[in-house]
Write a structure and sequence with these properties.
- By secondary structure, the chain is mostly helical.
- It has one domain (about 5-245): Rhodopsin 7-helix transmembrane proteins (Rhopdopsin 7-helix transmembrane proteins), CATH 1.20.1070.10.
- Helices cover about 75% and strands about 0% of the residues.
- The protein has 11 helices and no strands.
- Helix 1 packs antiparallel against helix 9 (about 210-220) and helix 3 runs antiparallel to helix 4.
- The longest helix has about 35 residues, at about 40-75.
- The radius of gyration is 27 Å and the shape is globular.
- The relative contact order is 0.09.
Length: about 270
């Protein structure tokens, strides 16, 4: 298996959006209250870039769902899938969404660096609408994938306990990959203070470590990726050893009578 196969390319792009989103999030921490109130242009640019990476993050989760659903549910050959189509969905489709959001902010909500604590800002629905749609589609993808998985497990000879264990494991692994955990934001935690605090901390934990879970499950613990990386490492070691041997062989004098000019000067000849 090659590291550059389509499935791994999709994984790497998704992880890249997590990295870029978090980098810009750290830049957002430089925005203090004074800059926020002055509505500085660079501040609005940072917020725009951050929102772009947020949307691309969700669309790459959608790409992950499309790939899995097509390969597992529709049993379509992955060799016929084109990389450029997924790249277009993940990186290009969010562009008009962000452009529409920027235009709306400029004309209707051009204040507070285009973000604030006031809920229900109208222009923010331009971003939130596609994101919610992506999550709903991915939820349908997850349902179909788990349905097919359970059908295959029931057809096997494994025990019922092992079947459910594999199904639960598959669901837990797919939840962060498809972004289904974000659906929890739409659940009302109730008016109880304790339940509200638990809800906030639990949601914050899931969203903060989502990129970590995706990278661990689909990169660091992926046996195929580790095998391909190990093969590449061994190939590099072999090439490096070969170059060292060639360099050493070339540095050995070809004739025992060779005398350097420096040695002649030292002997006074």
């Amino acid at each position: 298996m090659s590291i550059r196969c389509l499935r791994n390319i999709i994984h790497w792009n998704l992880i890249t959006t997590f990295i870029l989103r978090n980098i810009v999030w750290f830049l957002m921490q430089m925005i203090n209250e004074e800059i926020h109130e002055r509505n500085e242009p660079w501040c609005r640019l940072v917020i725009t870039i951050y929102n772009y990476f947020v949307v691309t993050n969700f669309f790459w989760m959608f790409v992950e769902g499309c790939y899995l659903h097509t390969a597992i549910v529709m049993t379509y050959s992955t060799d016929k899938m084109r990389k450029w189509k997924f790249l277009f969905i993940g990186w290009c489709i969010p562009c008009p969404i962000i452009v529409a959001w920027v235009i709306g902010k400029l004309y209707y909500e051009n204040e507070e660096c285009w973000f604030g604590e006031v809920a229900g800002r109208r222009m923010d629905y331009i971003i939130q609408g596609p994101v919610i749609l992506v999550l709903l589609i991915n939820f349908i993808f997850l349902f179909n994938i788990v349905r097919i998985l359970m059908t295959k497990l029931r057809a096997s000879t494994t025990s019922e306990t092992i079947q459910y264990r594999k199904a639960v494991k598959a669901i837990l692994v797919l939840l962060p990959l498809l972004g289904i955990t974000y659906i929890l934001y739409f659940i009302d935690p109730g008016k109880d203070d304790i339940s509200y605090v638990v809800f906030i901390y639990f949601n914050s934990f899931l969203q903060s470590f989502q990129g970590f879970f995706v990278s661990v499950f689909y990169c660091f613990l992926n046996g195929e990726i580790r095998m391909a990386a190990r093969k590449r490492w061994h190939r590099w070691q072999d090439n490096h050893t070969l170059r060292v041997r060639v360099a050493r062989a070339m540095s050995i004098p070809t004739s025992p009578t060779r005398i350097s000019f420096q040695s002649i000067k030292q002997t006074g000849i």
